[in-house]
Amino acid sequence: MKNIEQLQDDPPLRAVRAFEAFARLGSVTRAGAELDITPSAISHQLQLLESFVQTPLTLRQGRTLVLTDEGRDYYRSISAAFSVLRSATGIVRSRMAPRQVSISLIPLFGMGWFIPRLSGFLAANEDVDVNVLYANHRNYHSDASDLSIRFGASDWPGYTRTKLLSGEVVPVCSPAFLAKHGPIKRAADLAGLPLVHDEDRATWGAWLHRYGVTNVGHAGHVNPAIGPLFEDGQLTLSAARAGMGVALLREPLIARELASGELVKLLDAPLDDGRDYYLCTRSGTELPDGARRLAEWIQEEMKRGEAGS
Asked: Could you tell me which PANTHER family the record lists for this protein (predicted)?
């Protein structure tokens, strides 16, 4: 009975913190230095946590302490929570300075659209400092930023949202890939070619169906269920640039790569996958002046891009 009650209790937070530091840094010594405690204290906290969860999270290989499979799974689960804690704490601290504006976004939008344009906003708003954070959690329940750029089907209770970018994706690849596997003039030419997948494998299947490639899954033809799967668009973009295969990506977010020739748009064959980019703010909360200006600038920049396309 005691064990059951123990499992129902909250975990020992000091021990969880020590485990997270060890798993992230890969060293008892470095974890101790970060938390300003001794390595032996870190080891003690790890043992305490293992006793609580009743399974080994670490094992010793020679003189080195490493994670078990259960330890790796546990770290993946708690690392997101620690990321939220650090982000939220940083935002609260930054609000002591009225110049600070925080915005969270996913990497592809940040690197492909936001950051290349941000200097223009900062030049026109020298009294505002912008803190850019990763939105690591697709359910977005823990977002504490002033503004957030979200990707999905717009189902976020408690938030006001403005659509920024549609869900249209197009097939792209690297010039080297095209030289090796081309020419590609129609959808059927993708038969047998490597595909790379962004977040799920369903989008390629929908694109192939949309453009009449129905003989999928057979020998010598496209099989949308295989090929490497990447967690987000930035990783998918890197894979396409590296020549791993054909990817489905949004043109406005890869404009630099298309203009420079790093990527080639294969076909004028878009597919709306039903997931869009939105600018979101918390409902019923008045934005600080700097955040309001940044939100207005983002919308104007997006409209300017649409008018120029």
From this structure: HTH-TYPE TRANSCRIPTIONAL REGULATOR, TRANSCRIPTIONAL REGULATOR-RELATED
